[in-house]
Amino acid sequence: MRAPSTPDTPSSVVPLTKEHRLSRLPHRPHFLIYGHYDVQPPEPFELWKSPPFEPRIEGRSLFARGSCDNKGQNFAHLKAVESYLKTGTELPCDLTFVIEGEEEVGSKHLENFLTANRDDLKCAAVVISDTGMPDLDHPALTYSLRGIIAFEVKLHGPSRDLHSGLYGGTVDNPAMALCRMLAQLHDKKGRVAVPGFYDDVAPLSAYERKQMKRFPITESNYRKLLGVPKLFGEAGYTFVEQRSARPTVEINGLTSGYQGAGSKTIIPAWASAKLTFRLVPNQSPAKVRQAITKRLRALCPPTVRMELEAGHGGEPYLVSPTGDFAQAALRTLRQAFDREPIIMREGGSIPIVSQFKKILKADSILLGLGLPDDNAHSPNEKFNLDCFEKGMRMGALLWPELAKA
Ligand code: BES
Ligand code: MN
What we know:
The protein is of the alpha/beta class.
């Protein structure tokens, strides 16, 4: 039997019915709390110390796929609101939780839902805990996220795998061709070698660069945390700038030829790569996508046939950290963590954030509870239980602060 197909078109998005609507009092501010319950693929399973979907607590860590990114962080907000309800404490504002299941693939359908329900979802701001902080001593308000665009490139060579002894030297090997192409996506300075790619990049102000120097992780600790012998990145920028305020290209997956044990002497019939580019404020995903497509077509040799598939995309985000809500959020962090909070840019992407701004005209207040060693998108993802506890305090203290901001 065929599985029922999922509705996919904007017209399938139904506005909220009367029963779904919460009666809202006109004088109370309304905030959304956004998060996601979908997760990145848990593979490779063999690297997990315990099954990814059976949460396990060890010390102050809860291990599971999605524990940090993003269920644990959402749960902190739910528990905080629950404490208001259980103690009969009146919330100073109306709240709507918007927890979706497509964040990790670009939030395509939620965008339609926002449009269809823009009146009901009208709000003063959106609160999101789906980012990070450098450590428990530095709670953070994030004021910028990178955007993203994804591609899948597939090169087709011979009509079947060929004996590499019999035919090697006479046909192009698609895996070799793909490596040659991909290697040309960086120049010698570690910049993305796509004509026009940097055209709209907003330069970093001297002031912001100075502030970024105060980021509380040293380069050598950062390097050790990631387990690399040396850092790599765009020349002329610090690692803090490179990871959050400069655009990049990455190969996320690379597949071709024989993957089993031992050797197999073939020229594979095809080779493919999954690529993502991170974008920074002022870059337009549509415009950059065109430039990249053009570049890949130009790089593709005539000896293979290229198939190029466009994947998800999301715009970069930047909001002033000096606004009233941002200041209220910083006061909340100070109280909840009993530490001086920092403001920072993050390199990850939350595609719907720019749509909250466009469709609902609402800024997002990004109050992340993730730690650098939480292994997001990686085996043995965890959520720190101290972050969870402080996060619940943050969630409880936040609403009075935001409501009066
Ligand atoms: N929670 C992350 C985004 C994030 C993490 C931002 C840490 C800042 C700091 C989110 O779930 C995520 O991973 N998003 C994807 C989006 C993409 C697949 C469309 C990303 O950034 O890769
Ligand atoms: Mn994620």
